[in-house]
Amino acid sequence: MTEALLLDVRNVSVTFDGFRAINSLSLALKPGEMRAIVGPNGAGKTTMMDIITGKTRPDSGTATFKGHDLTRLDEPAIARLGIGRKFQKPTVFEALTVTENLLLSLKGIRSPFAVLFARQSSRERERLAELLSLTRLESVANSTAGDMSHGQKQWLEIGMLMGQEPDLLLVDEPVAGMTDAETMATADLLREINKTRSVVVVEHDMDFVRALGVPVTVLHEGSVLAEGTLDDVSADPRVIEVYLGR
Amino acid sequence: MNAFSCQSARSFKSVVWTAGLVLLAAIVLAVASLLPESSPLHASAFVVSLAGKYLAYAMLALSVDLVWGFAGILTLGHAAFFGLGGYAMGMYLMREIGARGAYGDANLPDFMVFLSWKSLPWYWCGTDHFAWAMMLVLVVPALLAGVFGWLAFRSRVSGVYLSIITQALTYALMLAFFQNGFGFGGNNGLTDFKDILGADLHAPATRAALLVATGVALAAALLAARFIVGSRFGNLLVAVRDAENRTRFLGYRPDQVKLLVWVFSAMLAAVGGALYVTQVGIINPGEFAPANSIESVIWVAVGGRGTLSGAVLGAILVNFGKTLFTAWLPEFWLYGLGLLFIGTTLFLPNGIMGLWRPTKKNDPEEITPEVSAPEGEHP
Ligand SMILES: Nc1ncnc2c1ncn2[C@@H]1O[C@H](COP(=O)(O)OP(=O)(O)OP(=O)(O)O)[C@@H](O)[C@H]1O
Ligand SMILES: [Mg+2]
After folding, report:
1. Are the beta carbons of B204 and B22 closer than 8 angstroms?
2. Full-model pTM
3. In which domain, by residue range, is B280 found?
4. Of B21, B92, B290, B322, which sees the most CB atoms within 10 A?
């Protein structure tokens, strides 16, 4: 514990109407690390992200990010601290164009008055161009986000995540509904992103997790069941039981 | 969502045209009203004040469209702000009467003398100064909207619940203004105005000037609204309207975003109300009636929600229809209005402005943020 942790979630529990969705869960992440989280449906993966991003308050336990107590902050404050989140169901602003979506995501102006009088800076223009090329959305830059394919929306949302320049990205099921080629391209993209940022990625797709080649945490019934390389955890009898026993 | 996406550049060019037309129409009518009565182009005082009333209503509609069309706040209480603006202007006009009232009291308006009040209530102080009264027109509704919006948006009240409390707000104001002791003339409201800034309110030149002033105010409001919705803030409003939670995770505070546009919108409505009173010559608690707020939403729906120009068009057309209808079949107007609303919702979901814009094929749904786009992961 001497090394400074970027994210430190300890012994967190959450109960919904008597149902314990998260049960004494702990998760620690060092700066620059990428972690894959797997686990059956209802294991609590999304709820864990809800806690880290301030959407859900834990009943007990602590969550700190860069030394800040996340359980005392609301969603915008946490986002401004440097945690970006991609939702399980892609949520982009459908009525806006791809570029407008990205522009809103760009780190910087957040107060309503400042937004009202904001003019696009040359720095912002450069960032937009970078993000469009990173997410391969240049050709649809001025199309309405609502008209994008599912995969394109996923990428747009990852682009918006990058626009925030967060230190930590929480990515919930990024390849759901993608073709194999798109899935592999997304793995490459996340590895590229991980060169400069820490990433927590939740995914059911094992080929994708394998392609990431990062340590894996297995969640089950709200707590950590196993941790290690993908090969280690998939050889773990308890993990096999959880997955096959269903 | 496509109704809005097809104008995705959101430049709102039509708004500039609308502003120009409004201004032109106001000036032409004003000039026509000053022609000698023998001239075939002469516009009567009735027509001028009717036009002024329509333009004031259009301002109310515009303010409703700003919050409903762009921030997804279905307000059913905007007449509250319109009415407050009207009362603030009415206070000034009452004071202008001076000793010319029925009781000849230089200080107290007639209704206060009638209630045998000895002095002006404190909140009437300074209302004999035009500038102070104009400040009240803007500040009182802004404060009320600010407090109301701050409480509502911060507690994340939205959708139908928000609509209901806006309705309750205007209803409460109506009840309060009905009270004689509230100091605004009770039932009868404020009326019998004589002049404004020393100019006779019944003189054709004053009426013409007021019509032009209303046209200028509406045109300026249109351009200001266009600036807002065309800016990055406008994109943010649409983002908040369609996926409020998502904006939080980007670091925005949607409650503040909504509060800003809500307060601005309340001020626009108030200016409309103030101009209305100068031309209609009376303001009474009936202006706060819940039905008035609902009517203003219908104007916007008929013209086309989220288009700005449509709000103005809808307000003018529906009120023109109302003028004709009430002269002809007064008891059926409400049914007509109801049918118009149902018809618009069914056949013209994007209002009259929707006729101009090619709607895309497979247009899935009309935006109703409180119904569509559940953003959470959990049902
Ligand atoms: N707000 C809530 N209210 C009630 N129950 C909830 C809430 N949030 C989560 N749950 C429950 O908590 C459990 C964990 O849900 P969660 O969405 O975190 O699982 P998950 O691991 O993300 O599953 P999936 O792989 O299906 O996305 C589920 O049983 C879910 O129904
Ligand atoms: Mg999930």
Report:
1. no
2. 0.91
3. 3-366
4. B92
